[in-house]
Amino acid sequence: MFELIDTLTQTFGPSGYEKKVAGTIADLLKGKVDEIRSDALGNLICVKKGSGKKIMLAAHMDEIGIIVSYIDDKGFLRFGNIGGIPPLMILGQRVVFENGTTGVIWYEEDIDNMKNTKLDKMYIDIGANSRTDAEKLVKVGDLAVFVGETVEQNGRIISKALDDRIGCAVLVQLALSRPQTDNEIYYVFTAQEEVGLRGAKTAAFGIIPDMALAIDVCDTGDTPSCKPMAVRLGEGPAVKIKDHSVIAHPKVKDRLINAAKEKNIPYQLEVMLAGGTDAGSIHTTAGGIPSGGVSIPTRYIHDASEMVDIADVENAVKLLAEFVKEMVH
Predict the structure, then answer these.
(1) What is the three-state SS of the chain?
(2) How many separate domains does the chain show?
(3) N or C, fewer C-beta in 10 Å, the chain?
(4) What does the pLDDT average to over 257-280?
(5) pLDDT band at residue 282, thresholds of 50, 70 and 90?
(6) Could you tell me the pLDDT band of residue 329, with boundaries at 50, 70 and 90?
(7) Using one digit for the tens of pLDDT, what is the confidence trace for 2-15?
(8) 174 and 278 fall within a common domain
(9) Are residues 34 and 176 in the same domain?
(10) CATH number of the domain encompassing residue 251
(11) How far apart are the C-alpha atoms of 96 and 282, rounded to whole Å?
(12) CA angle, residues 31, 14, 206, in degrees to nearest 5
């Protein structure tokens, strides 16, 4: 799956600008599903038709990024965030704009305590000598994403934008495998998750599925002196119990656990105390939709070098294949 993951993670697509990612996925799934369409908010909806129940599988296409808010006389760019960005983690990182312009994030030199480093005390240097020079390359309102190549090492994948292109890769791989089921499967690649779970809400309202899953990333508890969490890299995909946005529906949670047990697929249980997923907006849509999630354990979320275990990714595909085969009651 490395080539697929590499293709998806390296495609430009911050929140609200997911068009290139959607086009890449549509090309990959052309002829492999019965219908491919987009909605007004930019969600990509790929349908495997069936006579059974509707199952919605959602993975968000957007990645975190920055937006230019001001260009000063010397050509330095001030910026705001698109999605959650920890200031200390982005110092010295490169960003790239859609037109290929590259910049470096740095901070005002008179800050005497790095703990006081805030986004409004930081800037992007694109090597311009003046505002006029800078505006030849970048304008106010332009978006950029972080630079981080995709690397496979020791069975792990390191890359920017694994949140949530890894979930997109899982759904693409699942759709390509064409699991045999009478259920109608909606592979939904959502827009604007990082800025408020927006796309999934409109997609779910248009589909009104009988059951839904969000395929996303979750934190791990396996790095030095980290906050305790019962999820580790390499021990299987995580079945969501709860996060800040949703309490998984018991029917959905149990269906996933039973499928994993029956097919001897390794799995973990996820209770995430902060953060949410598309399930948070799906489950309260159209009178209520039983929802849950399958998460890929991921280290260093919202950094330019996130990390997953390829075995967890492959086992997530297997688990979802079993999940969609069973009839929904």
Answers:
(1) CHHHHHHHHCCCCECCCCHHHHHHHHHHHCCCCCEEEECCCCCEEEEECCCCCEEEEEEECCECEEEEEEECCCCCEEEEEECCCCHHHHCCCEEEECCCCEEEEEECCCCCCHHHCCHHHEEEECCCCCHHHHHCCCCCCCEEEECCCCEEECCEEEECCHHHHHHHHHHHHHHHHCCCCCCEEEEEEECCCCCCCHHHHHHHHHHCCCEEEEEEEECCCCCCCCCCCCCCCCCCCEEEEECCCCECCHHHHHHHHHHHHHCCCCCEEEECCCCCCCHHHHCCCCCCCCEEEEEEECECCCCCCEEEEHHHHHHHHHHHHHHHHCCCC
(2) 2
(3) C
(4) 94
(5) very high
(6) low
(7) 999 999 999 999 99
(8) yes
(9) yes
(10) 3.40.630.10
(11) 32
(12) 55
**Helix axes 162-177 and 310-325, enclosed angle (nearest 10):** 50
Which listed residue (193, 194, 270, 322) is catalytic?
A: 193
Q: Which two tokens stand for residue 127?
A: 């090597």
What is this structure's pTM?
0.95
The answer to whether residue 153 is domain-embedded is: no
Q: Is residue 205 part of a domain?
A: yes
Could you confirm whether 306 is annotated as catalytic?
A: no
